[in-house]
Design goal:
Number of helices of chain B: 17
Low-confidence stretches of chain A: 171-179, 386-392
Shape of chain A: elongated
Strand content of chain B: under 5%
Number of strands of chain B: 1
Low-confidence stretches of chain B: none
Radius of gyration of chain B: 44 Å
Distance between the termini of chain A: 60 Å
Oligomer: heterodimer
Number of helices of chain A: 9
Number of strands of chain A: 21
Mean pLDDT of chain B: 82
Shape of chain B: elongated
Order of helices and strands of chain A: HHEEEEEEEEEEEEHEEHEEEHEHEHEHEH
Largest sheet of chain A: 6 strands, mixed
Chain lengths: 392, 539
């Protein structure tokens, strides 16, 4: 029997019997019924939830999420169930629940940790709130709080682990034609000539020789690095594409970190899908240096999905037009299929082309030789220890 | 076992005793009310021993169910066990009766021991016993059983778990059964309690007053029942949370009694503030209220007429002077004539009593109506499926259909009227009677006349379907208009240029300039009329 039906029957009995106590009972039950139905939806509307979480996290990091729940209203909530929906790669089981009670103006906290073991762009939430009354007169009431997003950066690996020489083959290198002189590379001293900047005068040598001596620097060319990441599924062995594409993203991220440490400018272009980019396009980030740029690039690599938005060759051809002269073009690809003509073209245009073949499950000796013949520096990556474990 | 698990165990343990106490109290209250009703009916039955026996039933049932669980009795063993238990209980009841009333004089006739009281008492006892057993079983079903948690699918215990009883325990159904038992018992105790206070012959006497009585047993039943439902609700929530592996804050259990107490206190305060007695039935109360409202409205109308009379009196007096009337013919000052009140039927209560009764009926009916509305909304599908209520649904369906038809008709009529009014207004705008228009044009200054020629052209064009957009300039519009009326395009341009000049220039517009535009205007007007006719012919 339902409480509502009971109230109707109680009204009939009270009206027939005309005992004042029955009318009191009718009012008591009526008030309980009304309050129960009206109270909880109103109280729940006054609950404010704030989720405190960092927007980005490094691979392997444990991210703490703190939920702040506040009852801003004047009505208490006898019980409130919070159910946070989480991405499965970061939390198992993918739900965190808590039940609590809130007095008016009371604040409560609920924390949990996310284990960032897989890069990606994740929706944290929504937080589902449910509540109900004390006697089950009004049923369960639901509300939902918003979603936050977390970007887990790709795994950063030491280059040696990937089978690449620790000393990067690109970056600031000596060059025959002086684009500019690097003040950190002093080659010697010479006599001061009118027009030389006084900032480069070597005062000690001047004191020793008795004439003004100015420093002579090595002529260098600072090579900007353009990273091109190929996520075309056809360029990776289908059986292992999930692992090797992931590894390719990781390799690209490791390189940009290395470049950022050397304070060199770098750019990123990929044909993978960036969920935040308009029109299902891959990320194309301009040539910059600095920590802020590194964070932007790592975020883009964290978000990128392992499916192509366009053929890699088309993207490479289009974006190569915007490259600064003399920069290094670092291509991270699976098998290197279809990029040979573009490598030749880039090489002829004066770019330093480095190709990293990430599909280590395939025999890539032949394509690597062809690319080398075209003038590119080719590295074939080897599986990292952790990935080998996964593969096994 | 972790701390939380231990706490939960202690809570269940304490909770079971608390539940037993509540069920005991409710059953004793019910039995006491039954005895009251029996005594009120004039039957001299000393059945207080039954109250005592029934108060012990929940504890006995709880213990016997534990024994059954421990011994893991089979179906036939269980039947034998309960049969023996029932017989023992009836015999013990008789023993209690003899302790209370003393041994009856048998006089060598053993059958005298098996009198009506024996059978009646036995039946009541067994009835309460089955209710107590059901309540305790439902409460046990309400609690989370550790065996409910499914073992891993790969575990050998999984198949056993799939077929086990605990997997099929319906916690929510158990709560609903407890709640329904309490509410049905509540109706039963209300009827018994009312029967003990009200003479059955007086029930149909609608003129009798309200009986003032606090029925303690009924009060005890409902207070304990509410506490029982609150406890059951908390248990159900805890069970759900355990199923969903929710981390539960201790504050929920700690605050629960406080909040239940607060809710009931608030409800009691509200109840005490509201009227509970009424001197007038609902129809009479409504009639009285309408009567008072009509009287008040008529009095106000009389007062307004009196005020108008007072305001007109000086004028009337002056007019009588102007007519040179004699002193005796001068109008007299108006006097306020209060309306004659509608005679009230004999024995009508005063206004306050009627209002109080009306308020009472409004509140009581409002509560019942709201509850009924929600019940209908929540159980609509079930109610619609009931064969018994089919004629009612048919009637309601017909009424709803009639309402929809009336509403649709009213909407259509409203739209038609609005359309007709709009059309008439447009026609009036476009086709102003010639005489009036010419008279008005004759009164216009040359500048106004030039503007009129242009604006009336725009209006006519809009009526023809060449609408001017809100942000369109005069030149832009004239371009479109000239394209639609190629035969008078130069006339349109001339009208537009003259309008722009008249509207925005500071210099004087000579009358001959305005007069000179008239042939252009008339040509454009005729062209528009032609176009409109053509368009209507096409439609």
């Amino acid at each position: 029997m339902d409480l509502g039906l009971f109230i109707v029957v109680l009204f009939i009995i009270a009206a027939v019997m005309r005992v004042d106590f029955f009318f009191y009972l009718l009012y008591v039950f009526g008030a309980v019924y009304l309050i129960s139905r009206l109270w909880i939806p109103r109280a729940l509307r006054q609950v404010a939830v704030q989720r405190h979480i960092d927007a980005q996290a490094f691979w392997g990091e444990k991210v703490s999420v703190r939920l702040e729940i506040r009852n801003a209203g004047i009505l208490p909530l006898p019980w409130l169930q919070l159910q946070e929906t989480l991405p499965q790669p970061l939390a198992f089981p993918p739900v965190r629940s808590r039940a609590l009670s809130l007095w008016p103006r009371e604040r409560a906290e609920f924390s949990y940790e996310l284990d960032c073991r897989q890069r990606g762009y994740y929706a944290i939430g929504p937080l589902r709130l449910s509540s109900g009354d004390l006697l089950d007169a009004g049923g369960r009431v639901y509300a939902e709080a918003g979603v936050s997003h977390l970007t887990v950066f790709p795994r950063i690996l030491p280059l040696e682990d990937l089978g690449i020489p620790s000393r990067s083959p690109f970056g600031t290198v000596r060059h025959g034609s002086a684009i500019h002189r690097d003040p950190s590379r002093t080659a010697g001293v010479r006599e001061y000539r009118p027009g030389d900047t006084i900032r480069h005068i070597n005062w000690k040598a001047s004191a020793v020789t008795g004439t003004l001596q100015t420093k002579v620097f090595d002529p260098v060319i600072s090579l900007d690095t353009a990273v091109f990441l190929d996520l075309e599924r056809g360029h990776y062995d289908a059986a292992h594409a999930v692992i090797t594409t992931e590894e390719a993203v990781s390799v690209a991220a490791s390189f940009v970190v290395q470049l950022a440490r050397r304070r060199q400018p770098f750019s990123l272009a990929s044909n993978g899908v960036d969920p935040l980019a308009a029109g299902d396009r891959g990320p194309v980030l301009p040539m910059r240096s600095g920590q802020a740029h590194l964070t932007t690039v790592l975020s883009a690599l964290g978000r990128i999905e392992n499916r192509e938005s366009e053929p890699f060759a088309a993207m490479l051809q289009r974006e190569a037009l915007n490259l600064p002269w003399g920069c290094t073009v670092l291509v991270v690809t699976g098998s290197g299929e279809g990029i040979l003509p573009y490598c030749l073209q880039l090489r002829r245009s004066g770019f330093n082309v480095v190709v990293l073949l990430a599909d280590y499950y395939s025999d890539l000796r032949a394509p690597a030789r062809e690319l080398e013949r075209a003038g590119a520096t080719v590295y074939r990556l080897r599986a990292t220890e952790s990935l080998e474990k996964v593969a096994k | 076992m972790n701390g939380q698990g231990r706490r939960r165990e202690v809570r269940i343990h304490l909770g079971m005793w608390w539940r037993l106490a509540l069920i005991t109290g409710m059953m004793a209250a019910m039995m006491s009310t039954m005895l009251d009703a029996v005594h009120a009916a004039g039957v001299g039955w000393r059945g207080s021993y039954l109250v005592f026996a029934i108060a012990l039933l929940p504890l006995e049932t709880f213990i016997s169910q534990r024994m059954v669980r421990r011994r893991e009795l089979r179906s036939d063993e269980l039947t034998r066990f309960h049969l023996a238990e029932g017989i023992t209980l009836v015999l013990l009841l008789q023993l209690l009766r003899y302790i209370d009333q003393g041994l009856p004089a048998i006089g060598g006739r053993v059958e005298r021991l098996l009198d009506v009281e024996f059978f009646l008492g036995g039946m009541i006892l067994l009835g309460f016993w089955s209710v107590a057993a059901a309540m305790i079983r439902w409460f046990q079903d309400l609690d989370y059983q550790p065996d409910e948690k499914a073992p891993p699918v790969t575990s050998p215990d999984y198949d056993l778990w799939v077929s086990s009883r605990v997997r099929h325990v319906e916690h929510t159904a158990a709560f609903q059964r407890i709640s329904a038992t309490f509410l049905i018992g509540g109706i039963f105790i209300l009827i018994l309690g009312g029967a003990a206070r009200v003479d059955p012959a007086a029930i149909i006497d609608f003129q009798r007053g309200t009986i003032r009585a606090l029925i303690l047993h009924v009060l005890v039943y409902f207070v304990l029942g509410m506490a029982l439902i609150a406890e059951a609700r908390l248990s159900l929530l805890h069970t759900r949370w355990q199923h969903e592996e929710v981390n539960v804050s201790r504050s929920v259990s700690r605050r629960w009694p406080v909040l239940v107490g607060g809710l009931l206190l608030l409800a009691v305060v509200v109840a005490l503030l509201l009227p509970v007695d009424y001197s007038v039935g609902i129809i009479d109360a409504l009639q009285q209220a309408i009567n008072y409202l009509v009287t008040a409205a008529v009095t106000i109308a009389y007062a307004l007429l009196y005020l108008v009379g007072l305001l007109l009196y000086p004028l009337q007096w002056l007019m009588s002077l102007g007519r040179g009337g004699a002193e005796g013919e001068q109008p007299s000052m108006p006097e306020f004539a209060a309306p004659t009140p509608t005679p009230s039927p004999a024995g009508t209560p005063p206004l306050l009593d009627a209002l109080k009764s009306l308020l009472f009926w409004l509140i009581a009916l409002g509560i019942a109506g709201y509850a009924l509305y929600n019940f209908g909304r929540e159980h609509g599908a079930t109610l619609r499926g009931m064969k018994l209520l089919r004629p009612l649904w048919a009637l309601l369906g017909a009424l709803a259909g009639l309402w929809r038809w009336l509403r649709r008709g009213a909407t259509r009529a409203g739209r038609a009227v609005a359309k007709a009014v709009r059309r008439r207004a447009q026609q009036a705008q476009v086709s102003t009677p010639m005489g009036r228009r010419l008279r008005r044009m004759g009164q216009m200054s040359p500048r106004e006349l030039v503007q009129y020629y242009y604006l009336s052209t725009v209006q006519r064009a809009e009526a023809t379907g060449l609408r001017r957009r809100p942000n369109e300039t005069a030149d832009e519009f004239s371009g479109g208009l000239a394209a639609s009326l190629p035969e008078v395009d130069q006339d349109v341009d001339a009208l537009t240029a003259a309008f722009v000049e008249a509207k925005y220039s500071a210099h004087v517009v000579p009358p001959e300039r305005a007069q000179g535009l008239r042939p252009f205007w008339e040509r454009v007007r005729q062209a528009l009329r032609r176009l409109r006719r053509e368009r209507q012919a096409k439609q």
